[in-house]
Design a protein that fits this description.
- By secondary structure, this protein is of the alpha+beta class.
- It contains four helices and eight strands; from the N terminus they run H-H-E-E-E-E-E-E-E-E-H-H.
- It has a domain of 106 residues.
- The strands form two sheets. The protein has a four-stranded antiparallel β-sheet with strand order 1-2-3-4, with helices on one face. Strands 5-6-7-8 form a four-stranded antiparallel β-sheet.
- The model has no long low-confidence stretch (mean pLDDT 82).
């Protein structure tokens, strides 16, 4: 019985280490862009209202787009939680998913869509609303960690 218990503990420890290494890889690949230098870039850029209400709760979502360079998404959800993220062409972001997050590099940003190049070379476009909905609390490190943990359950 002790052998099975030790085996299960060792398996859980391997899963934890795998998820932790995926998390660290995400931190190294795409650092968070919350600094003042990023937000100052967006001062003269028009603010687009992307989403105003969800059911009976108002959740304003905004986007500021510098065409084919970068996008800033900000607003709040769940009445109290605020988000403010910056994505640059070449960054990875979520374009689809259910249990796993499907990640791809951003290749084009416009006032209406964000385009991704998937692994098979095809382009996937998301409307700004869908892009914000999938990436409002996104960090690459957490996405890698989530996928690593989910792969252990599949």
């Amino acid at each position: 019985m002790d052998i099975l218990k030790n085996s299960a503990e060792a398996s859980r420890e391997r899963e934890r280490q795998s998820a932790e290494s995926a998390y660290q890889a995400g931190l190294e690949e795409q650092p968070d862009k919350k600094g003042v230098e990023f937000l100052d870039i967006f001062n003269p850029v028009n603010v687009l209202l992307v989403h105003q209400e969800r059911g009976t709760v108002e959740d304003p979502w905004f986007a500021q787009v510098i065409k084919n360079k970068m996008i800033r998404i900000h607003g709040c959800y769940g009445q109290t939680t605020k988000f403010d993220k910056v994505f640059i062409v070449g960054d990875k972001a979520i374009y689809d998913g259910y249990n796993l997050f499907y990640l791809a590099r951003i290749v084009k940003i416009t006032d209406k869509t964000v385009s991704f190049e998937r692994d098979n070379g095809r382009i996937k476009r998301l409307k700004l609303y869908d892009f914000i909905n999938r990436n409002l609390n996104f960090t690459l490190a957490d996405a890698y960690k989530h996928n690593s943990q989910e792969m252990n359950c599949i």
